[in-house]
Design goal:
Family: Belongs to the IspD/TarI cytidylyltransferase family. IspD subfamily.
Shape: elongated
Strand content: 25-35%
Catalytic activity: 4-CDP-2-C-methyl-D-erythritol 2-phosphate = 2-C-methyl-D-erythritol 2,4-cyclic diphosphate + CMP; 2-C-methyl-D-erythritol 4-phosphate + CTP + H(+) = 4-CDP-2-C-methyl-D-erythritol + diphosphate
Radius of gyration: 27 Å
CATH topology of the largest domain: Spore Coat Polysaccharide Biosynthesis Protein SpsA, Chain A
EC number: 2.7.7.60, 4.6.1.12
Keywords: Isoprene biosynthesis, Lyase, Metal-binding, Multifunctional enzyme, Nucleotidyltransferase, Transferase
CATH superfamily of the largest domain: Spore Coat Polysaccharide Biosynthesis Protein SpsA, Chain A
Oligomer: single chain
Protein name: Bifunctional enzyme IspD/IspF
Number of helices: 12
CATH architecture of the largest domain: Alpha-Beta Complex
Largest sheet: 7 strands, mixed
Amino acid sequence: MPEIASATKVAVLVVAAGRGTRAGGGETPKQYRRIGGVAVLRRTVEAFAGVDRVDSIQVVIHADDRAMYDAALAGSSAHAKLRPPVGGGDSRQASVLNGLEALRAEAPDLVLIHDAARPFVTGDVVLSTLDALAGGARAVVAAVPVADTLKRGEVTAPESSVQVRGTVERAGLWAAQTPQGFVFADILEAHRRAAAAGVEGLTDDAAVAEWQGLAVAISPGDAANSKITTMEDLMQADRIIQLEELARCSDVRVATAYDVHAFEPGDEVILGGIAIPHDRALKGHSDADVVLHALTDAILGALCDGDIGHHFPPSDPQWRGAPSDQFLRFAAERVRRAGGAISLLDATVVCERPKVGPHREAMRARIAEICDLPVGRVAVKATTSERLGFTGREEGIATLATATLRLPFDYLPEDASC
């Protein structure tokens, strides 16, 4: 067997093939449900990707979940370390074995096996597990001491009530978590032998190692490294993230913007990312979406990060006729890269025609989609100018926009020249 001290290649195996029905969500397994606006699986994977000593990440998914997996990990910062996902089996043990077999070509020295439904794993827990392996252990489980008094219960008939039948001594008891770390060759062999022997129902990979006769060490876990199982767990996880984000992003900024485009011959206008039939079009270097332009400027204003003309100069021919959703998406991504969040986007469209009301909800949905926001954080309103001014004379359309952001107090704009 290889010496632990010489191990340099670390792989992480994330088990995400379960159905997670107890967490609700209908057809969406819990690992693809969102907490704090981000899929559970994505948070889990990115937690490991942020640890320098982790070289690669292998995710095991259900055969029916590829579309949800791709959507959850689209644009993730973990992509540089992610291997293509592999299909799971009929049980957790089978899924882990499939993942381990997929990692054989990479030949890692060590592997950390982790449940996708534990998105709060910290770098300290990951490093403690790796340090235990580097210190000579061949199998390690992250765990926390049991603090609660434990009672042994028995269901009594006919009332089916539970009666206490004794108190369990908690000294020496630990609550196992993941990640669980192993010498790769050891745990692969243990899973292969368990499968060949028809041994099933082992609840974690440390149990597989124990069955194989491997000594399993304990490394410090974290009480916050909880597993999402029920709908209540999911709701609690969402609350935790929201509170963390409020504490981290307590610099609330509000900025306004204004944009206007004149009419020219055509048969539709683009407003809020939606094509609306009209007897004229809006004139502009791009698609002249006056709503998205104003929202983009409002976000950039709150970021103190220039304006739409600075980042997308109208003198640059590559933006001729360009769809304006890419401008708004760019601004929203600047907020995310700053470690912040968009609290609200509000747009007021000023025109006599076309009527915005029938298209309002489609515009809200499209803006929310572009910015990856809940639609409840997007407002679109419309008004006329009572036949006054250029909008009253139907010479063009104007939009006033407001963006409310939450940013870290130490935020600085990416482009100092702005």
